[in-house]
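User: Teach me something about this protein's shape.
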Amino acid sequence: MADSDNSTTLPSVTHGRGQRSKAHGVDRLEEADPALALLQGWLRAQHVSQVLCRLQQRLERRVLDAAVPDAMDKKVGYSIACQAEVEATTAALKFQDKLPQIRALSLLGIVAKLEIIVGADRDIDDPTDFPWPHLASVLNDLKEIAGSLPLERPERTVVQADCRLYQQIASDLVDLEKQASNLGLGEAPVVGISSA
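Assistant: First, the predicted structure itself:
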């Protein structure tokens, strides 16, 4: 007598040690597990922040090397670069802030969440103190069991678009600051005086 309840095909079990291609599962995993999408967004923001940091450092060097009359123009560019880096870093921090609300739906989702936590430790004073090496160890163990995530850098055009966006935001903020400083302390703009 055949048992019809056992005719369902079960998905194959893998331990994550094999290669995963975009066409065979990684895209589906990102859609199925919000923690993977969170990691991709965080990695993108981190990368853009690093690119803008290098730009800011180059501009800082130019400001320091500039002659006095030329320095003012370079300072504006430097101020925009600094603010753009702050905007990108803030975007990365917003992804980190979402981490506790995102539920991992797979072992790779847990790996993704730990990647963000361990990756964020680079900004702390001493990453050799407890619990950072311990978390890195757990992450490595999980990668052995579940497999590593295909961590890809964002495309150059995406990074450039993000950089332009943050630079525009920064430029607008620097212009507002400049306008405010031009008003002077205690002075308010005249907005139309009506006689009563």
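Now, about its shape. Residues 29-176 form one domain. Confidence is low (pLDDT under 50) at residues 1-26, 190-196. If you'd like, I can walk through any region in more detail.
User: That's plenty for now, thanks!
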